[in-house]
Design brief:
The complex is a heterodimer. Chain A is mainly α. Chain A has helices at residues 13-31, 33-55, 73-100, 104-123, 127-145, 152-183, 188-196, 203-221, 229-236, 239-263, 269-291, 297-317, 321-352, 363-366, 368-382, 388-402, 406-431, 445-463, 465-477; strands spanning 63-65, 69-71. Chain A is globular, with a radius of gyration of 21 Å. Chain B is mainly alpha-helical. Chain B has two domains: 1-35; 61-122, Methane Monooxygenase Hydroxylase, Chain G, domain 1, CATH 1.20.58. Chain B is 69% helix and 0% strand. Chain B has five helices and no strands. In chain B, helix 4 (64-91) runs antiparallel to helix 5 (93-115). The longest helix of chain B is centred in the middle third of the chain and has 28 residues, at 64-91. The radius of gyration of chain B is 25 Å and the shape is flat. The chains are: A mainly alpha, B mainly alpha. The A-B interface holds A 26, 30, 181, 201-205 and B 1, 4, 112, 115-116.
């Protein structure tokens, strides 16, 4: 690193705008109470989309802020990714928040702030910046998970999430101190340079650092055996926040892992590869097997998302430019699919107040479009052809097998078949069981539009994966120079 | 690894010697001082007053937690202010404006809480 620091604040414009947006949302909530409930989600979503357009201005540019925050294709990819996710979640929340939650201003502002943290997790090139970004995301999520203040489940979920999250942060920080102690720097590139020169003199410290780092980040992305908070937090959180947890919080963890391990720990790949392979295998098997027994749709999706984390961890275990771009593609497909599923579940919950799988019976008769979209999403999660999940899984498993982890890919394929069973059990309730009550439900037009758009996204990624795959390759090329 | 551990020898020494010092003072006073007990001497010392009536465990209203949080924010702010004040001159103008911004954000938070009616005892 040169002594001349590049302090070009314009590189951070999108995040300044996000902070401004959060302040505006809070301000509207404070000073204009009569319009706040109706307009806040749309103002927030419009702001997020505007900033998304702004951040496209950094496509194909490569620069960094003081060496700690990189603004390159990888960052731009995740900026667009997280902004779009946040906008969709905000729109999904509109009716839910209006009917069920207090303090909408704080809700939307916290979503916006957490997006800043997620973006910097992908962008940081220095350990402490990465850690602080992680905390910006986590702190917002702790509050959001327990946002339904009068609901004991929400409080329980929030408390568990916060206590385990704080514990994970402590592990992570202790791990970072070992890494700093052995490499003598917190910058990813300097760490790689230090380790490239041989690690004989500090093997133990390096191992301790990697184990603690993995445990801390494993908590954040909910890898087995650090997943215990996930089902409770997912079940207790307000539904749109559950969707947000399964999308942004998870993907941001992987964005951090991918940049950290590809640019700092490549020289010591033999020390951590087996850890990730073991975690991936455990996570896939346990997540999918426990999902078989769930009766609540939120808990089912919680365990299914743990299974998905297992597939994603495989890509880190078999880290190469091939698996990295496959991982980005798979994450995009997964998030579009998951948001489609949650958009249906939220709409159903708004109409009927029910979230047990058994209570979804006969959805096909009462709300056919929701049932069709939910079916498409669940098929995609299990990896059926035509839907997003098939191609993204296919490319991911193939890339992992190419790197010599055929056994992991075999486990993944078997577990995908297992997952088909529990997704089909939900679909059976939707289509074959008789509904409890007769009569069509009136789904609001905006919800129908959003759900249809997300379901179309599931098909788009499934039928034309090449477009997204090329973007993913552009985004990850620079990690493996 | 060895180098890492060597740095902590001082911490270890300070810890051990600290324990010995405190322990020997306590044991010494126990052995050397004249020792007699009475009922008055056994009561807890509360600035010379008669101890507060039982039950001793008094409850604090849950509403205080918001005041506690607001206090904590400015308490932690002080933690940042002291090191900032020490290096203020060497860093220069940027340090000043950074801190103004930091305090403004915290002040904004307090104003927000105030406007939301947190400081009112309802």
């Amino acid at each position: 690193m040169s002594n001349e620091l590049n302090l070009d604040y314009t590189l951070l414009t999108p995040e300044f705008c996000l902070a401004g947006l959060a302040a505006i949302v809070l301000g509207i909530d404070l000073f204009a109470p009569q319009v706040r409930k109706e307009w806040l989600p749309y103002i927030t979503a419009a702001g997020l989309i505007g900033i998304l357009g702004l951040s496209l201005g950094w496509v194909e540019k490569e620069s960094d802020f003081a060496g700690i925050i990189a603004v390159d294709n990888y960052t731009t990819f995740f900026r667009v990714f997280f902004l779009a996710t946040a906008a969709v979640v905000v729109l999904m929340s509109a009716q839910f928040v209006r009917d069920r939650l207090k303090n909408p201003g704080e809700y939307y502002a916290l979503l916006v702030v957490s997006t800043i943290g997620a973006i910097y997790m992908a962008a940081s090139r220095e350990l402490l910046t990465a850690y602080i970004s992680l905390e910006v995301l986590s702190f917002s999520l702790y509050v959001l998970v327990s946002f339904a203040r009068m609901d004991p489940r929400s409080n329980e979920g929030g408390l568990k999430y916060m206590l385990l999250g704080a514990f994970a942060s402590a592990l992570l920080l202790y791990g970072l101190s070992f890494i700093y102690g052995s490499a003598g720097s917190t910058f990813y590139s300097d760490i790689a340079a230090a380790y490239a020169g041989g690690t004989e003199s500090f093997d133990l410290a390096l191992l301790m650092g990697l184990v603690l780092l993995l445990a801390g980040l494993g908590f954040k992305v909910a890898a087995v055996p650090f997943h215990m908070w996930t089902p409770d937090a997912y079940e207790g959180a307000p539904l749109p926040i559950t969707a947000y947890l399964s999308a942004t919080s998870k993907i941001a963890g992987f964005a951090l892992l991918l940049r950290l391990f590809s640019s700092a720990f490549m020289p010591v790949i033999d020390d951590w590869q087996w850890m990730f392979a073991a975690l991936a295998a455990l996570t896939m098997v346990l997540g999918n097997l426990v999902a078989l027994q769930q009766s609540n749709i939120k808990r089912l999706l919680a365990y299914s998302s743990i299974g998905q984390v297992g597939y994603m961890l495989m890509a880190i275990a078999a880290l190469s430019s091939g698996t990295a771009s496959a991982l980005l593609l798979h994450m995009s497909g997964y998030v579009v699919t998951n948001l489609a599923a949650f958009s249906c579940i939220i709409a159903w919950y708004n109409l009927t107040d029910k979230e047990e799988i058994a209570d979804m019976r006969g959805m096909a008769e009462r709300a056919p479009l929701l049932a069709a979209a939910l079916t498409a999403a669940l098929f995609s999660l299990s990896g059926m052809p035509l839907f997003a999940g098939f191609f993204t899984k296919f490319i991911l498993f193939q890339a992992v097998a190419d790197e010599g982890f055929l056994w992991l890919a075999v486990i993944a394929v078997v577990m995908s078949f297992v997952s088909l069973y529990y997704y089909l059990m939900v679909i059976k309730e939707l289509y074959i069981s008789k509904p409890e009550e007769e009569g069509r439900l009136q789904v609001p037009l905006s919800v129908t539009g959003l759900t249809a758009a997300l379901a179309a996204g599931v098909f788009y990624v499934g039928i034309f994966p090449r477009h997204l795959f090329e973007v993913a390759q552009e985004a990850t090329n620079l990690l493996f120079v | 690894m060895q180098v890492l551990l060597d740095n902590y020898v001082a911490v270890l020494l300070a810890g051990v010697i600290g324990f010995i010092l405190v322990g020997s003072a306590l044991i010494g006073s126990r052995l050397l001082a004249p020792y007699s007990s009475s009922r008055q001497k056994e009561t807890s010392y509360e600035c010379g007053m008669v101890p507060a009536a039982a039950p001793i465990r008094s409850q604090i209203h849950i509403r205080y937690y918001l005041f506690a949080i607001l206090f904590l924010i400015f308490d932690v702010e002080a933690v940042f202010l002291f090191p900032w004040a020490v290096t203020f001159l060497s860093v220069g103008k940027a340090a000043f404006y950074e801190m103004v911004l930091f305090i403004a954000v915290l002040g904004g938070g307090l104003a927000y809480a105030w406007k939301k009616g947190v400081l009112q005892w309802k």
